[in-house]
Amino acid sequence: MTGLPFVMYFAFLSCRLRDLVLKLNKQINVDDQRQLVNINEDIVDDILYIQDILSLKVDKINYCLINCVYYYMIMPMCINSLITRYEVK
Description:
- The protein has 89 residues and is an all-alpha fold.
- It has helices spanning 4-27, 33-54, 59-85.
- The protein is built from three helices and no strands.
């Protein structure tokens, strides 16, 4: 269950969550509260889904999922925030 199709699914899931967080960040400055609530609900749904997968306690799956979340969501967002924070204007 840790073959290529499953690993790609975890990468897709991580990228989707990253994109939703970035979309939420952009939506905060807009006055459309309904859209903000919808994005927030999608983020919570994805996080709960990831929590459900991790709660299965299958080491190989957890390892693949945690690596995908780290490399496809957390690291790009951290690096992007560092780059945009110190960007020369």
